[in-house]
Every structure is written in C-alpha cells, then in structure tokens.
Model the fold of this input.
Amino acid sequence: MLERINESVAYIRRHIAENPEAGIILGTGLGGLTSEIKIEKELPYSEIPNFPVSTVEGHKGQLIFGKLGGKRIVAMQGRFHFYEGWTMQEIVFPIRVMKALGIKILFVSNASGGLNPGFEVGDIMFITDHINLMGTNPLIGKNDDKIGPRFPDMSEAYDRVILDKACDIASRAGIPFRTGVYAAVTGPTFETPAEYRYIHIIGADAVGMSTVPEVIVARHMNVPVFAVSVISDLGVPGKIVEVSHKIVIDAASKAEPRMTRIISELLKEISL
Done:
C-alpha cells in the first residue's frame, strides 16, 4: 500500500506548487463548491497512478488544488462508492494519498435520506456519529503500523471542537442546521420503508451510501474529520415518496450555498 501511495503522491507533487493543508470530499450534487475555490491545478483521476475513476452522475472525477478560506486545500470532485464495484481499500485510497500530501483535517459531504421525523428535505445535518451497516470495513486485512494502528479508537470519529465551531458559525450566519447520526449502507438501491424504520430505530437520523469508509480511514491515520449531510429525501412514515438520483442531486444542489459558506468559514477560523 505504501508503495502505491508514494507513487501517487510523487506524481501529484510534480504538478502542484504547495502541499495542501485540508482535504475536502464533495458528495452528490455538491461539486459546485469548486466555484468558491481559487483553483491552481486540476488533476483528473484517470491521470493519477493507482486512482480509481468515478462512474456516478454528479461526480466529475478530479482532484482540485487551490485555496479556500485562506487555506491550501485539495478537493475530491467525485468520490468512490462500494456499489460501483470498488473494494473498500480502493474507495479510501485517495484519503491515504491526501494524508501523505500533508492534510491536517478532512471535510466530508454527502446527500442522505432523512429518518428523523423533525427533518425536512434541504436540511443540513452536521454528523455527530455514525453506524456502519455496510457489512465490511476498509481496515480489514493486514495492517501497516507505519500508516495507523491495528485497532484505531472511534470514540470521537467526528471532531467535537470543529463540530462546535461549525454550529457557532452557522448560528452566527443565521443558517439553520441539524445534528445527528449517519448510517451507511452499501446501496445502490434506495431503502424500503421497513429498512428506513429499522435504521431509525437503531439510532440513525439519516442514511446514505458513503462517508463512513473515508472517516474510518481518516481516523486510522489520526486526521480529524468534520462531515455534513444534506437531507435530499425523507424516509419518514407518511413522507416517503419514490426517489430518483436526479431528485437527490437537485436537493443537494439547492443546499450547496449554505454548506459552502460553512466550510469556507470553518477554514478561515481554524488553525492548521
């Protein structure tokens, strides 16, 4: 793994002037955040050694280097999903590369189905914890102690200090937000009404098909994480309607300006 990481990092460093301080994963329908980034370099995944290539609509498939909120960032415009057929190790490989490039914090975004009866489509939820329902884990297999510990602690998967700061920023800006637990499933099917009920009963406020693998690997490497989920549809009894990927993209896109402002302000206010 280290050889593959180093090969990717060596290629990337030949194309960028400075190492990034923060990493950002742009989820479904949220790729427009790039309009706020002062872009210095774009590298398509297809050109980076060992990188998978995103196949999902709404995921462009490139690394973007530049500045946002006064910090040097690398943004994944398009992530990888288990349902595309990638292995867990392939899905999280870009996070390994980001860490090797020098990031000190990871921001993650996604679109999800709301399970909390108090949620509405378009709500922004700051993730406080997660439940892994994907049936696997990106750390399964031989562990390399040079990368991270065999048994990483997950008692604070989502950094509490950053979460508190995000809540403060949103409150000051008058941006409504929710907080809650995110459950990850494999997809690619959207959930049945019975699955929505089950996942809510076991403690989740939202459900989606990503994020958890990346967060696990970030914490394995001791990288703090802040994650935000845009509620794109509802899995609440009486509010369940037929869902399409277009509906999810549209809902996420409408919430994008609020998410962009929060992440930009967070980058301005945190020390890296």
